[in-house]
Design goal:
With about 210 residues, the chain is mostly helical. Helix content is about 80%, strand content about 0%.
Length: about 210
């Protein structure tokens, strides 16, 4: 087998791996979200809801690593870089993949900072689920676009077709729009993290001030 074929095979493996793992992360997040509203006495459902939260976190970490490997192998094993950067469809796929990477990276960051207790806070819980949804939708679009570029279907095309999305119509996201959206998402999360850090410092200062002076 030629070395080029082997390298392309690694890209296919990493692409399918990150698609499967991030789909699992999204599905587990939705199960945990629904589990907060639907409290059934069924032991199987309670166990599924309990396992969904750590499963989503671990699957997102694994999927994000596989996504990074897929991006690197894709840039190295497909067309030359100068060809990739002159194709509007390829640039469109790169932009959508950047959206997906941003969403999932923020998903993992929020869970790493707040831990499982984020599910006890309504706004944070909603933002966490929205990050998973944004990551999954952009993942489907990137996978569909990549599948068409490779001359085959994505494994998630069926889901898009059920939602009424025509995956055969490729579109181009303007560069400024892509940069503006990603910058806005990163800025909002950065502000939330700063607020979190400052909020943790206030109780510590109050506790220090309340200590009796020796």
């Amino acid at each position: 087998m030629p070395p080029e074929t082997g390298r392309i095979a690694w890209h296919v493996i990493t692409a399918e791996l990150h698609t499967g793992m991030l789909t699992l992360a999204f599905g587990s997040t939705m199960i945990r979200l629904v589990g907060g509203w639907v409290t059934a006495e069924n032991a199987l459902w309670r166990g599924l809801v309990r396992l969904a939260e750590p499963t989503a976190y671990l699957a997102a970490i694994g999927g994000l690593l596989a996504l990074a490997a897929s991006i690197m192998s894709g840039l190295a094993t497909t067309w030359p870089l100068e060809v990739l950067l002159t194709s509007s469809v390829v640039l469109n796929k790169i932009a959508i993949t950047a959206f997906s990477t941003t969403f999932w990276a923020l998903f993992v960051a929020v869970r790493s900072i707040y831990g499982p207790r984020l599910w006890n806070r309504a706004r944070l819980r909603g933002a966490y689920a929205a990050l998973a949804a944004g990551g999954f939708v952009s993942l489907m679009l990137a996978g569909s676009t990549g599948g068409h570029l490779a001359g085959k279907r994505s494994m998630l095309d069926g889901v898009l077709h059920l939602l009424g999305v025509n995956t055969h119509l490729l579109f181009t996201i303007p560069g400024p729009v892509a940069y503006a959206v990603m910058s806005s998402v990163v800025l909002l999360v950065t502000l939330a993290l700063i607020r979190r850090v400052l909020g943790n410092k206030k109780p510590a200062r109050a506790a220090a001030a309340a200590r009796p002076q020796m």
